[in-house]
Specification:
alpha/beta, TIM Barrel, 13 helices
Length: about 290
């Protein structure tokens, strides 16, 4: 498994991560025992960046479900694998009645960070990301609360999620930023066109595409036609693996975080780190994707 730096001066992690949304925030999520087995297999394959959020749950009655799940999986790993796992979490989203709403108030984020420390069974969160900017709160106030927590030793690295290029530029003037997590996939390539990917390159930040296969339903149908299907057939691998390899070729600090509910899914995704696409194949894929 290839390794990549999680932002400037950040830890090394596998080139493919795993997103915890489908195993935590979906009505079709697996049992906790089944999800733990997926995470154990991910660690064995060198998938060492595990991404979750306090809001990865069904509603506000179980905030922190995804974090507790990740902590339970890490706890049963052998010591050598435990040491390699980097758990990233996010705060700034609430789930009243199952809805997704922003809350970036500094006092809320301070409390959320403390709750995440408890849920993850740790005294320092390796990567804490602002889940999304709250339109009712100055962006600088939200970032300031997270930076304060790092000064207190509660957070090692700070990341951003669902941000635009201007917000990235603003955040890096306030504090050290390690990563940016935005949606990016063949059907949603805005990060290439809105300046986000370019801004990550300019600042040397890790880029963590979420929903890299378009989400659970789209992932099943991806590659049914066109260049993606042809290239997958040429290489004798899944179309999903080709997509992740295409994404890795975009930027040497890209770490896609596909979700997984089954061990077979993470086994296929992890193998993308070992796929090298030719320039001709990359060109064909670029031309065929939206």
């Amino acid at each position: 498994m290839q390794t990549r730096n999680l932002g400037p001066n950040g830890p090394l992690v596998g080139a493919i991560g795993i997103g915890g949304g489908p195993m935590s925030a979906s009505a079709e999520r697996p049992s906790q025992d089944a999800a733990v087995q997926v995470l154990i297999r991910a660690a064995e394959l060198g998938v060492t960046l595990w991404d979750t959020a306090d809001a990865y749950c069904l509603d506000d009655t179980e905030i922190g479900y995804g974090e507790r799940l990740f902590a339970a999986a890490r706890a049963v790993l052998p010591a050598d694998l435990q040491a390699r796992i980097v758990i990233a979490t996010k705060g700034g989203t609430i789930r009243p009645g199952g809805r997704w709403e922003a809350n970036g108030r500094p006092e809320y984020l301070r409390a959320a960070i403390d709750a995440s420390l408890l849920a993850l069974h740790t005294d320092c969160i390796q990567l804490y990301q602002l889940h999304r900017a709250d339109p009712e709160v100055p962006f600088a106030d939200s970032i300031g609360a997270i930076a304060e927590a790092r000064e207190q030793g509660k957070i090692r690295h700070i990341g951003l999620s669902n941000v635009d290029a201007a917000q990235i530029d603003e955040a890096v003037t306030m504090t050290a930023i390690a990563s940016v997590q935005n949606q990016y996939n063949p059907m949603q390539r805005s990060a290439e066109n809105d300046g986000v990917l370019h801004t990550c390159r300019r600042h040397g930040l890790a880029f963590l595409p979420y929903s890299p296969l378009g989400g659970s339903s789209a992932a099943k149908q991806i590659g049914e036609a066109g260049a993606l299907r042809e290239i997958a057939a040429e290489l004798g691998i899944s179309a999903q693996r080709v997509v992740l390899a295409w994404m890795l070729a975009k930027y040497d600090k890209t770490i896609p975080i596909p979700g997984a509910r089954r061990t077979e899914s993470i086994e296929d995704s992890a193998a993308a780190a070992d796929v090298t696409l030719t320039l001709e194949q990359l060109t064909r894929l670029d031309a065929s994707f939206v």
